[in-house]
Protein 1
Amino acid sequence: MIDFHTHTLFSDGELIPSELVRRACVKGYRAIGLTDHVDGSNLELVALRIIKVAADLNRFQSVLTFPGVEITHAPPGQIRELVEQARQLGSALVVVHGESPVEPVAPGTNLAAIEAGVDILAHPGFITPEEVRLAVQRGVRLEISARHGHSLTNGHVARLGLQAGATLVIDTDTHSPDNLITRDRAVQILIGAGLTEDQALKVLENNEEFMGILKTRL
C-alpha cells in the first residue's frame, strides 16, 4: 500500500509519527505521506517538524516517509500563497482538504486548490466537471478516499475523473490506527466507487508513479 494522506499528533491524529509509520509497516505499506492539517497559523511549525521527523524515520526504517501538509479550511483566496509557502519550506507533498460533503469547507476551495497546482485534492466532494477538466490540465491528482464520510462522494469523483482522464489516487486520510488499510482493501474501495478491477489497479499504479515523483523531492 502507498498512502499519501495521513495525520499524526501534530494535528488531530491519534499517533506520534513513529508509531503511525510502524503500524503502516505491519499493514504492508511501502510508502506513507505525513500530511497534518495546517492553515496560516501553524504551517511553518508543522511543516518543519514533519520534514525533520520524516528524514529521521527514513534513516532507520523501511517505509518510505514523505513530509507533507494538508491545507485545511483555509480561505480559498489564501490557498495559493499557502501552497507556495509549504513548498518553499521543503514539504515534498502538498494536499488541500477538498469540499467534502461532511464538512463545511468554504465554496471555491476545490477551484483554488486546482488553480494553485496542489499535488492532491483530497476528498473533493461534488467537484464539478469543469473543475475536473482543469485538474487534468494542471496535473492535480484527485483523491478517492477510504475514510468514512468523505467516501460518500467517491463514486461521483471516480465517474467524472474517468470521463475527463484525471489522475485518481487512493488514500486513507488516517487519523487512528484502524484507518490504515491493506492493498486488497484499497482495491475493494475503488471497485465500490464504480471502477472495474482493471481501473482500480490503474489507480494503484498512479499511486506508484507519484511515489516515484516524490522520491525526487526528498
Protein 2
Amino acid sequence: MTHEFSHGLSHGFSQDRLARIVPTLAARYIDTGAIPGALVMVWRRGALALLDMAGHIDLARAMPVRADALYRIYSMTKPIASVALLMLLEEGRIALDDPVARYIPAFAGLGVFAGGKDGDFVTTAPARPMLVIDLLRHTSGLTYGIHGRTAIDAAYRRRGVGAPSTGGGLGAMIAQLAALPLEFSPGAQWNYSVATDVVGWLVETISGMRFGEFLHTRILGPLAMDDTGFFVPPAKLERLSTCYQVQDGKLAVQDDARASSYAVPPNLESGGAGLVGTAGDYMRFCCMLLNGGELEGTRLLSPKTVALMTMNHLPGGRLMTDMMPVTGMFNEAGYSGVGFGLGVSVTVDVAATRLPGTKGEFAWGGAASTAFFIDPKEDMAVVFMTQVLGAPERVRLRRDLRTLVYGAMTRTFTTDTAFAKGTAT
C-alpha cells in the first residue's frame, strides 16, 4: 500500500483521516474480493492532498496498483466529449437549442415507439424535435441496449449500436439510429443512452476533424493528458489494468491486459465510453473544470460555460430519479438528490442524497466502477480508479468514498471565514 500526501499549505484535511480512506476501502472491497485494487486522488486548493492505492491491476500476475496504471474509463469519457461540443458552442458553431436534425438530417423523421416489433415498429410523431441539449442531458429519446427493458433496447443490442467494432464508425452508428424509433418524446424522460456518442458525431461533423483527432488536438494534447486515448499503444500495454467482471460472486477476467481489445484502434471512437487513461490524466481534466476551464495557462472553456455545464438542466429543475422511466434504472449516480447538467450529474439537494457533500458538486462514473467528483465551493476534485464491470458494490463504494473524503475535512471553505479568505495555514 502506497501513501503520498502534500506538505506545506494546509488544505483543510486531517492527514490521519485522509490516510484511512484507502485502507478502509481496501478492507471493505479489495480484501473481500469485490474489486482487485483501488487508486484514490484528492486535489484541493491547488495541490495534491492525497494519492493512495492498494491491491492489484492484474490478479493472476500479482501486479500491484501503480500511479501510472491505465484504466478503461468508459462513461467518464462523456464529460470530455461534452467539453468538446461546448468548445464548438463557444465558437458560435452550434447552440443548445438547435434541432439535432440541423446537423443530422436523417434524424428529422424520427418517430416515437408506439408498438410493434423489430422490423415493423409502429411510431407516433414526437411532441417536439430532439435538441442538442437533449443529447447532453440524456433527454433525447435514445437509449442503451444494456438497459434490457424495452423492444428498442433489444433492437440496439441486436444491431450492436455503439459497439467499438462497428464498421464505418460513428457515421454507421448514426445510420443505425436513424432507422430505429425513439423510446420517448425528447424532453419527457431522463434515459441514459448513446446520446454522447451522437455528440461525438456532431463534433466530427461541425469541426471537420475525426472525433479522436479533435480530442487529441483540442483537449488531451493541450492539457498534457498524454496517456489518454481510444487505444493503448504497445509501449504502454504493460501499464494497462486487466478488467474484471463478477461471475458467481467472484472476479473473472473480462478483458485481459495481455490480450486486450484496447491494444488496437477501435472502428468507432465512442464519446460515451471509449477512452483509456490514467488517474493523473483525468485529474488534470478535473482541475481544468475546477479552475473554470483553464489549466496552467491553457484555456479550453470560459468560466461561464463551465458554470452552464454544471447546472441542473433537467426540465423544471427536476431530479434524475424523478425523470427515469422506471425506479432504480441504471445510472452512474445511484442515489436521489441529483440532477443532470451538460455531461455531468449535479447535486441539487444534499439532504436527499443522505451523504455529506455540497450543493453544486458535479460528478460521474464509468461502467468499470471508476468515478470522479468535483466540489467547486470546496475547491476540491476526487478521482477513483479500479476495473470491475458491473460491480454490484459500485454505488455503495462511491457513497463510501464521498463519506470518507468529506469526513477527512477539518475546515470547509464554504463556511469558514478564515479559510475562505485564504488566511489559514
Protein 3
Amino acid sequence: MATCVLEIELTHEIRDRQGLGDYGQALVLLRFHGRPLGTMRVPCQDGMLRAADLCTAIESYGNLSRHLTQAALTHWLMQHELPITAQLPTWSIVICTRDRTDDLRRCLDSLLKLQTPGGEVIVVDNAPSDSSTARLVADYPVRYVREDRIGLNWARSRGARVATGDIVIYTDDDVVVDVGWASAILEPFSHPCVAAVTGLTMPLELETEAQELFEAYGGFGRGFRRRVFNYTMMAPSAAGIVGAGANMAIRRELINDMHLFDAELDCGTVARTGGDAYAFYQLLVKGYQIVYTPQALVWHRHRRDYASLRKTLASYSVGGFAFLTRCWLRHGDWQALAVAASWFWNDHLHQLACTLGRRPGYLPLDLVLAQITAIPLGPWAYFVGRRLEGAASAEVVPETVLVRVQP
C-alpha cells in the first residue's frame, strides 16, 4: 500500500490531515522552525491522518524532547545571540540532466522558490538525444550548457568550469529542493577547512513497492544529526557515507584544480555510480573537512518500477567496488581493501542472511543477489573506465555555447 509523504511543523497547531485518498499510512517529517528533526510513520484511516494519532506518535518518538530542546536553543541563539557577521559565498547551482524533461521541469520550478537571493542556475545537458531540454530551459532564468561526452561526471566537471560562483551546488533533475536549501548548504563554508557540504535527501513520494524497498534499503538519508568528516575519524575510502551527489556543494576552485570529476565514473559510464564518492575521497585525503547538515533538505523521486530498482542496487555494487579498486590501485590505499571487505560482509552478506532468515525488513532475494553478483563487475569497470577516461580526456572538446535567459 502506498505511503503519503508529509511534513509537520511542530510550532503550528496539529490538526487532522484530510483528503489523503487510499493511503494506508504517512511518512511524516517533523520540523521545528523549519529544522528537520526526524521522521515517523503514522497510520491513516478513511483518507485522513488524525491529529490524535499524530500526537500519540510524536509523544512516543524516541529522543524527541532532546531534539526539540537542541532545536529550540539553536533557534533562540540564531535569533538573539548570533548576529550574522559574514555573508554567504557566491554560488552556482548545477543540474546535470539527460532526456528527462518532466523531472527537470519540477526541479526548476522548485528552484524558483528558493529564499536565498543571488546566485545562478546552470543546466548541463549531457549528450541529449534531441532538443527538448534546450527548449524547456529557454522558459527559465537559467544558463544552458551542452556536454557531449556521455557521463554524469563529465557533466559535473563541465558545470564547474563554466560556473561563476565560489561554491558549486549540485543536485539532480529528479529532485525538488526545500526553500531554504541553498542557504543551509552554503552556511558551513564559513569555515576555511570545509571543502564540501552534503545535506538530507528525503523521498519525494512512496507510491510503489520499488520506492518503499529503496527506502527500506537505506535510501539517500544520512540522518538528522550534523556531522563533520575528516581523515582522522574515518578511512577516506569510506567516503560514500558522507552524503549523496544529489545534494552536495563543493568549492569551485577545488573541483577545477583537483579535477575532482575528471574520472570515468557514475551514471552513463561502465562504472554506473561512484563519482561523488571519489570526489569526497580526494578531498578527505588532502586533509579537508566535509560537513553533513540535515538543514540542507531536498526531496528525491526514487525510481518507480521494480526493474529500475534492481538495476540501481546492482549499479551501487559496480560503482562502489570500481571506486574502491581505483583507491587501491591508483592511490595505493590499502584501507580500501578493508572497506571493501567490510561492505561485503556487513552489508551484502548480512542482508542475504536477513533475507534467507526472513527477518524483519528483509529485501527480496533477487535484489540481494543482484547486488552480490554485480560485485565482480566493479574491478572490471575500473580498468575499462581508465582506458575510456584517457581517450575522452585526449579528445578536443568544442567550446560550449552558453545561453543566458533573462527571467
Protein 4
Amino acid sequence: MEFRPLGKTDEKVPVIGMGTWTMGNQASGNDRSTEIEALRRGIELGMVLIDTAEAYGYGKAEGLVAEAVAGRRDEVLIATKVSPEHFHYDDVLMSCDSSLQRLGIKQIDLYQLHWPNPRVPIRESMRAMEQLVNQGKIRYIGVSNFSAEQTMEAQESLSKNEVVSNQVQYSLTSRSIERSLFPYCEREKITIIAYSPLDRGKIPGRIPKRITEKYGMSPAQVMLNWVTYKDSVVAIPKAASVGHIEENSRSVTPRLSAEDYALLSKLFS
C-alpha cells in the first residue's frame, strides 16, 4: 500500500483507507460479522486508516471499529468525528470521552469537526480541540465538509496546533472542491480525505474500456486511482465485504499515466 504524509506531520497514512458510514447498523442490512471481517482484512492489506463518527449509527460504527481493531490498536490510525450539535466547548470534550469509550482506546489519532455549525463559533470548538490535544486524548485535529474560508478560520483559531486534514466528498464525478478548497489545501499542505470516492456506488459507464484494460482494473479501481492521483489526497471508500476491500487495495498499482489522468479529468469535467 502507498503511504503519504498527514498534513505537515511526520505521520504516514495509506492512500486508501476505510470508511464506516452505515456500518454497525443492523438497519443497513449488512451482517456485523462480515463488516468486522472486512475491516480486519483491510488492516492486513495495509489500509490502516479507519474513519468513523459518533453520528454513524448513533455510535454503533465506533463500537464495530472497536471490535475490529481489538488486539491490533498499534497497527491502525483511528479517525472519528464530533457532530455539529456538540461543537460547544464542553460538549466537544464530552463527545470525545464518549467516542474513546465506544472505541475502547485511550487516544484518538485524528479527531474531526464533522460539519460546519454557524451557530457555534469555530474558535470555541477549536479551543476544545486543542485542550484535547493537551490532555493526550487526541493526536491530530481535522475538519470535515469545511469550505476554504472555514478551514482557514479553523486554522487561525488554533494557537499551537494545525489543521492536518479536511474530509470532503470528492470523486471523478463529484468535483466541486476543485474550485477553491483543493488549491487552498494543496497550498497549505492540508490533506484532503476523500469520502464517497466511488460516488456512493454510482460507477459511470463512460470510463474508456481501453483504460480499464490497459491497467487491468475495474471502473471502480480506476476511480480510486484517479481520485488519489494528487499527493494531497487520500481516500476512504466504505467497503463492508472482504471482496470489495481486496478490490480497493489493488486500485493504486500501477498508477495512471499523466495522459490518462488528464483524459479522465477532461471526460468528466
